Amino acid sequence: MHLKGLVLVAAAAATWGMSATAAKVLFVRGHVPPATLVSVRLSLSFIMLLVVLGAVRPQLLRISRADLLHSAVLGVAGMAMVQYTYFVTISHANVAVAIFLQDLAPFLVAGYELVIGRRAPRGRHLATLALVVPGAFLLLFGLGLNLQVDTTSLLSGLASAGFLAFYTIWAGLRIHRLPPVTMLLYAFGFGAVFWIASTGGRGLSAAVSSPWQWPAYLFIASVGTVIPFGLYFSGLRYASAIDATLALALEPLVGGLSAAVVVHERISPVQGVGGMLILVALLVLATRSWEKLEQGGFRHGKLAPAPDSVGDQPGFRH
Prior knowledge:
This protein is mainly alpha-helical. It has 14 helices and two strands; from the N terminus they run αααααβαααααααααβ. Strands 1-2 form a two-stranded parallel sheet.
């Protein structure tokens, strides 16, 4: 079950990595403002999922009032805000800084489990963190990109990691009682309404005036949003929050490879080393060979090692 969850999350990360290249093309060649992309992305994702579920599984459109409120918080405080803070970081620094800071989310999830859940991280989590952080750093900054960040980009980047950790934990609270696609549908809807209201609809109007960009919008909304979020939330049924956020380290690796193929970006040997560290980290995360060491190390301690799945955690029972 643990491995199934990691495979689902890794597939989501890979899909996000590929779609990041399409977003980059819109930013660089189409001069699309971030607010436009976020508004269109969430709105199209909501419409696509609504049409599909309405035609194939209309019963999945039903939702209780409590679950609707939960999805509203997820859509606004999770999806809408993580994208906003991510793009603020990009505007003040660069994409590499934004990704690296957001990849610190596992530390926040581990802190939550330690302080709130009184569950110590497992040995493989610590080993994976020790490999992922330098691996991501080398992969993202291996070409000598600018590392200078101002206060705004630093705070927004850390906030982005916080919102990522939040929506992972928040989604896990009801992931076993509410179908992932139902949760996603209403989260997309509330997130879209929030962004449209925040921008006064300027993002959607700008997108309508540039029809040649719509193939990229459709690709990002389907392949870059509906599919990966569906995979990620489904993975949360089998993997813990910290496992899920750690597995997202695959995203910058796939994004770098797709950028090399699509826009012919060069990958340096240093970046190659970073990519290998990330792959090794994911193998460590997937293995069960740490169990005896973990059980022996924590058997007599006050803290119990974190469980392998969200469903095993007392706070996530359904």
